[in-house]
Amino acid sequence: MAIAIARNIALGQAASFLKLPIVFDSIRTVLATVLAGPVAGGLMGLLTNLIRGLIQGLTAAFFAPVALVTGVVAGLLARVGFFREVWQAAISGVIVTIALALIPVPIRIYLFGGVTGSGADFLTAYPLKLGQDLFPSVLITVPGWNIADQVLTCVLVWGILRGLPGRATSDWPFLAHSRA
What we know:
This protein is 74% helix and 0% strand. It contains ten helices and no strands. It has one domain: Orthogonal Bundle (Arp2/3 complex 21 kDa subunit ARPC3), CATH 1.10.1760. By secondary structure, it is an all-alpha fold.
């Protein structure tokens, strides 16, 4: 988990530096969740953001509940077999996005005025410039970009799982729920 947290942080910092709207900082969280269950995944997501908050700035720490929910929901989906086929992994990304739909919006609005320094800020600014209020602008932007991020994350995790040899995954009994 420590290595996966470090890699999550590195991917998150790279995306932040490049101002990418898609972050991919939850790949290791979702992978850990599929391997070890929703508690481990939620804990890993939470710790990743709290540590990133100490290293990169407090912005990431405020989004720790988002990472926690990502891990827990992906773990519950893995538990019921939603990582067995690629289409199920894609649906898992949509379900994770729906579960996250209202968590980051108030954080972005009330703590950051809709602007967090991420690549998605441009997408929030555009409707604002067209006369939309802040709340609908953020409400449209956040789920719109989260769905792309989460679907791609879940599909990539599905691919990683398919590429792992049996001997590398035999010690992960939770993974049995996600094997085809």
